[in-house]
Amino acid sequence: MTTLQKSVTAIAAKNHPKNHSKTIQYGTAGFRTVATDLDHVVFRMGVLSVLRSLKCNCQTIGLMITASHNKEEDNGVKIVDPMGEMLEQSWEELATELANVGDDKLDTVINDIVEKQNIDLSKTGSVFVGQDTRPSSDSLARAALTGIAALSGIVKDYGIVTTPMLHFFVTCQNTNEAYGKATADSYIKKISSAFLKLRGDTYEKGKYKPEIQFDGANGVGSVIIKDFAKAIGDALKININNDRVNELGVLNKDCGAEYVKTQQKPPKGVAVVANARCVSVDGDADRVVYYYVDADDKFHLLDGDRIATLVAGYIMEVVKKTGLEVNLGLVQTAYANGSSTAYISEKLNVPVACVSTGVKNLHRKAVEFDIGIYFEANGHGTITFSDKVKDKLDRELTNPSSTKSQLAAMKELALLINLINETVGDALSDMLLVETVLHARGWNIQDWENTYEDLPNRLLKVIVKDRNVVETTDANRKCTSPAGVQDAIDEVVKKFKNGRSFIRASGTEDVVRVYAEADTQENADHLANLVKKIVEEMAGGINQ
Ligand SMILES: CC(=O)N[C@H]1[C@@H](OP(=O)(O)O)O[C@H](CO)[C@@H](O)[C@@H]1O
Ligand SMILES: [Mg+2]
């Protein structure tokens, strides 16, 4: 049967009518805007996620209500594909179309998708729903549930969870629990027991001290970290700050990973203790950055590039010790600091690939390697392990000819795999991975920082009439439109030692971003401002 049993148009008009005519687009991170504009969009995404499930042989699809690091008044919705990855690109277009048509056209558009995608509506779709802690998330989650019910989908509503937990649950469900059980308890247990085994009985090692200051951005990260803290106990003392429950702070306001990374200063709500190792996560706990303030009150940021280099170096060493043939690679975007790229490719000898901005692009590339490590500079990333590597590891762990040290390394690698949430960047699992590597190396945060020196850099935003006039190629590193812009950028970059700069239209904000690097902070700022001027003059800036 290929026609709708119930009229979605009628349900929408009655319960979730479209109440504005603004166009909204499924962008880098799903739909994201002020929460009051989203009710009909989320209802429709409930519908679409059932269609997606039916298209994917009735496997479970995830639907997450969150606007991540954005303001508390914003919200958003994103759809998770069966293996925990982001929604397939061609469906992003269907999502955009479905979100924007009038209520009266809904049945037609849905029937159209059903026909073109060859979907069998007599089968039953399945959707997992999760939400962040925003005040608007509850009612939006209800809109999603109504949308799912409109197509008679089966639903499991997880309530407040981190985005990476929802990705984890979806993967567990669709692998028949090979990846774990699709419950919060199983998620916490899988990761924390791997962490405890890796840590062993000695919590303090060399210069490593098992204590961190944690900034939960007044979001779901501060809720779930408590479950980890309980499971981990003294192996790592986690001092939880910006905890919405105890302090009623506003989500992401002057705190969280995005604030710390872009403002380059410590978050409000965390007492400054000289040289203490501090961690900030974002509003849905898929990004993490580290920082510390030194004895001279100077702020030091250790971002996604630092996490990538730390874990790549360590995992490569462990892999070498196993004696297994494994191809390991690291994936970055053009925003990665040039020094981190040089360190990874020249010092660690790990191949580096550069892809367009957006976690989905990094993830897609990472899975091409046996072990793929990816992190955006903003702290969003993870490590993926191919089935080939996992099978090899299983086989070799029982191979009598493996040496004792090979076996120990293989056991360690197997535990690292369990510690990592491979489905998508997971701030809490990534944090425990960083803690594991620092502990294994006996390092404090300064030792980690001293591995290489970042090139000074500057990220600016330019407001233009239409950001879509800016088009890029070569993983965002070359601007192809408007004509002449790239030549102008090349001209100014040439004048700076270690100069590098590129522009691209943001996928999440109505701006063009300018990134610049150079030998000194003054030069990086100067270069960024010169390129900003080029954008203003040649790409329709409205700030002139
Ligand atoms: C420079 C920067 O940090 N860009 C971020 C930001 O995308 P833009 O397309 O640059 O707005 O949000 C994305 C989603 O969170 C993230 O993937 C990306 O890295
Ligand atoms: Mg996020």
Automatic annotation (TrEMBL):
Binding-site residues for Mg(2+), renumbered to this chain: S68, D282, D284, D286
CDD domains reported in the protein's UniProt record: PGM3
Pathway: Nucleotide-sugar biosynthesis; UDP-N-acetyl-alpha-D-glucosamine biosynthesis; N-acetyl-alpha-D-glucosamine 1-phosphate from alpha-D-glucosamine 6-phosphate (route I): step 2/2
Keyword Signal applies: no
Residue intervals of the Alpha-D-phosphohexomutase alpha/beta/alpha domain: 60-93, 116-171
InterPro entries to which the protein is assigned, alphabetical: A-D-PHexomutase_a/b/a-I (IPR005844), A-D-PHexomutase_a/b/a-I/II/III (IPR016055), A-D-PHexomutase_C (IPR005843), A-D-PHexomutase_C_sf (IPR036900), AMG1_II (IPR049023), AMG1_III (IPR049022), PAGM (IPR016657)
Cofactor(s) for this UniProt protein: Mg(2+)
Gene3D superfamilies according to UniProt: Alpha-D-Glucose-1,6-Bisphosphate, subunit A, domain 3 (3.40.120.10), Alpha-D-phosphohexomutase, C-terminal domain (3.30.310.50)
Domain Phosphoacetylglucosamine mutase AMG1: 184-289, 303-443
Chain residues that bind substrate: E376, A377, N378, R504, A505, S506, G507, T508, R513
GO-annotated biological processes: carbohydrate metabolic process; cell wall organization; UDP-N-acetylglucosamine biosynthetic process
Role noted for this protein: Catalyzes the conversion of GlcNAc-6-P into GlcNAc-1-P during the synthesis of uridine diphosphate/UDP-GlcNAc, a sugar nucleotide critical to multiple glycosylation pathways including protein N- and O-glycosylation.
Family listed: Belongs to the phosphohexose mutase family.
Protein name: Phosphoacetylglucosamine mutase
